[in-house]
Sequence to fold (401 residues):
Amino acid sequence: MADGFGLATYDVIIVGMGPAGATAAAALSRGGLTVLGLDKDAHPRYKVCGGGLSARIDHVLEPGFHSVVEQSVNGVQFVYRGQDPLLIESARPIAYMVMRDRFDHYLVQAAIQAGTHIRTGYGVVELTQDLHGVEVVTAQGRFRAQIVIGADGANSLVARRFFPQRSQYRAPALESEVPIAEGVHGPAATAILVDVGAARQGYGWIFPKKECLSVGVGEFRLKSRSLRATFDRFVTDERGVIGGLVPRPAGHPIPVYEESKAQGQGVDSQFVAGRTMLVGDAAHLVDPLFGEGIYYAIRSGQLAAHAILAHRDEHHVAVSAYEAALEREILPDFRVTARMAQVIYAFPRLAFKLLRRYQDVVQDYFEVLQGRTTAQQFLPNAKKRLKASVNDLLLEALHLR
Ligand SMILES: Cc1cc2nc3c(=O)[nH]c(=O)nc-3n(C[C@H](O)[C@H](O)[C@H](O)COP(=O)(O)OP(=O)(O)OC[C@H]3O[C@@H](n4cnc5c(N)ncnc54)[C@H](O)[C@@H]3O)c2cc1C
Fold:
């Protein structure tokens, strides 16, 4: 596998072996292509993440991943600034809790078994593409491929090199892992806790794992002034649940989906450029409502792999097919959840009141998380049911009732 320049050459090089990259790698290797997966870090590695995987993952991933699930969750305990707990449950799981070191390692192992050549400790420092392929530079050597997949996360170098015009919002988030010990008990046995009033234009969460609680805050639609102060207040408000000592939180951006300013003007794509495709966080494929990105990382990795396999010798057709698949399967729901986020995060107290009054609407949204329906199908019905009530609540707030 060496080209005319003596470089090791692959059909596809994937930069980043998180969920997006590892899933794409496994699918491409199973399809018979030569694949090199590069990651700057060795797995298993810690990743700042709530590790909440919506149950719709069951529709796209082989069931083997359940071996690294820490906890199945079938409900959400909503609170507003630590007060008025409201537990809403579903008869079936709505999410699975994973620790990212174990989960990502599992996916990387699956890629290796499928035949992907993986090199960890190989940070990509430069990339160039020409008419014939892409060259990828690491401190340890150079490689060439027909196609590159940028799966290198929220701070993607691939995106910076090949999508220089892109300027999308990356939401700040903080998280700490609180060891479960005496006095630390979690929201409820099989529920996550969501505090709707904990953050400005975002929320606070407690996700239960086997040995710890993942405790965090994210602000999804606003430049944060002091997220650390927000985190400290959240932890204090939830002291009754979290109990003991909270280790210092770590920060990481969440690249929530935003429609490109250039969209619809026939200008640059947000996802593909020449022989390069972006997947997962590198492509900003994170749900604007909850900041959920693991499912979309996995699914976009699969969609990229399917497009490449379906158009093996025509990279320009493959990149268009990938973009079309995102447009068909993922982006319409993001446009809906972006609108929901706009309203909910602008009026969190009103949203919390509505949650209490319309628990069946929340149940309907659980079906979206379970992959039994889509956000697009959910919204019109929810709007109809909520409309009258919003008027009532506004009148109540104005003391006219
Ligand atoms: C605080 C916080 C909480 C979150 N909670 C949740 C949650 O509960 N549920 C959920 O669904 N999502 C959550 N997310 C989002 C989720 O973490 C991401 O959407 C998800 O990790 C995206 O996967 P990915 O494979 O695209 O990128 P990543 O998981 O970030 O993987 C990228 C990989 O690329 C490697 N890499 C980076 N640069 C280079 C380079 N130059 N060369 C080689 N390798 C490189 C990295 O080492 C890494 O392994 C959260 C995020 C944050 C910050």
About this structure: Residues 15-21, 38-41, 47-53, 123-124, 151-153, 157, 173, 175, 216, 252, 254, 280-282, 286, 291-295, 297 surround flavin-adenine dinucleotide (CB under 6 Å).
